[in-house]
Amino acid sequence: MRIGILGAGSIGLLFASYLGKQFDVTLFPRRHEQMDLINEKGVTIETLDSTFTTRVRATLDKNEFNKQELIIIAVKQYHLENIQADITNIHNEIPLLFLQNGKSHLKLINHLEHESIIVGSIEHGALKINETTVVHNGIGLTKLAPYRGEINRISPLLNWHCEYFQFKTYLDYKEILLKKLLVNAIINPLTAILKVKNGELIKNTFFMQIFHDLYNEIIQLFPELDSKIVLNEIIRICRNTENNESSMLKDITLQRKTEIDAIVGYILELAKEKNVQLPLTNMVYGMIKGMEKRGIE
User: Fold this and answer.
1) Quick one: 222 and 247 in the same domain?
2) Which residues lie in coiled coils (predicted)?
3) N or C terminus of the chain with fewer C-beta within 10 Å?
4) What is the pLDDT of residues 95-127, one digit of tens each?
5) Alpha carbon 145 to chain centroid distance?
6) What angle do CA 227, 101, 41 make, to 5 degrees?
7) Of residues 228, 247, 128, 140, the one with CA closest to residue 187
8) Do residues 185 and 231 lie in contact, with contact meaning Cβ atoms separated by under 8 Å?
9) What is the CATH number of the domain that holds 114?
């Protein structure tokens, strides 16, 4: 199976390295420098137990999009607008897999005419060390669900088994995206504000209290979910990725734009529609926006 991956950040590199062990993978980075380094060195994954390198091809040639049998869009939420025209020009019969945080990307997806569109939720912890190297410091699932069309269009991927890189399919994309939204809304901003790794949120009793307070405030917006089950799932992900730095913490540290609008901003918009007050969530949002503004000015 020929798989193209748009985006060569931590998630794009992580997927390329694992999938490249079994499939014909082409990475589409944004810059010539990274393309040349990937073609020269391959993509290296470092885990607690081992290090391995996978040879994949990298190119900036957008004509290569339509030679793929699956396109994985692994850029951040706020970069989607920049590549919207590229995605639209991909042949409609080629399945698309979106791996963004939040739910804002559904607006873009809804306007696409592709026959098969899949959305995913990633639980892995990954830290990009350099242009070709990622530390895989949290093992989890990649949850997939069809947004449109049949998910069996990507059956070679679904039938492939890798102990450290497993996929699980679901029927309801709304549920997996909503649960991931809650995971991101708790872990990402709190780790960025407190400047701690994921595991510290559940190890430090004071941080854990803030964790619970924020969760209890947000979960009231979603009465359709089982509060205890979702809470335990967030705690499990914190534990499984305890040594990982959240993407928002990395963005703040590197003075980059964050995905706070796509995650917490989305929740605040929903709260406004439902006329529900979320004072703690508003404060967390304002703190991240202030830190973001200070970093990128």
Assistant:
1) yes
2) none
3) C
4) 999 999 888 899 889 999 999 999 999 999 898
5) 15
6) 135
7) 247
8) no
9) 3.40.50.720
**C-alpha span between 6 and 90 (Å, rounded):** 12
pLDDT tens across 157-206, in order?
Answer: 999 999 999 999 999 999 999 999 999 999 999 999 999 999 999 999 99
- Nearest alpha-carbon partner for 66 in 18, 35, 26: 26
Residue 69: Cβ-neighbour burial (10 angstroms; 0-12, 13-18, 19+): middle
Tokens matching residue 178? 């909503």
Label the pairing between strands 57-58 and 24-28.
parallel
Task: Say what angle helices 266-273 and 279-296 make with each other, to 10 degrees.
Answer: 140
Give CB contacts under 8 A, 24+ apart, made by 156-165. Answer: 156/1, 156/23, 157/1, 157/3, 157/19, 157/23, 157/70, 160/22, 160/23, 162/18, 162/21, 162/22, 164/18, 164/47, 164/136, 164/139, 165/18, 165/19, 165/124
Q: Are residues 69 and 88 in the same domain?
A: yes
The candidate with the shortest Cα–Cα distance to 83, out of 93, 73, 91, is 73
What is the C-alpha to C-alpha distance for residues 210 and 186, in angstroms, rounded to an integer? Answer: 10
151 SS3 class: helix
Quote the pLDDT of residue 295. 73
The domain containing residue 74 runs over which residues? 2-171
Q: Could you tell me the two tokens for 288?
A: 């991240």
Helix H or strand E segment including 18: helix 10-19
List the catalytic residues.
180
Instruction: Match 């004071």 to its residue by tokens.
Output: 206
The answer on 165 and 249 residing in a single domain is: no
Answer yes or no: do 188 and 124 share one domain.
Answer: no
Domain count, the chain: 2
* Backbone phi, psi, residue 43, to 5°: -115, 130
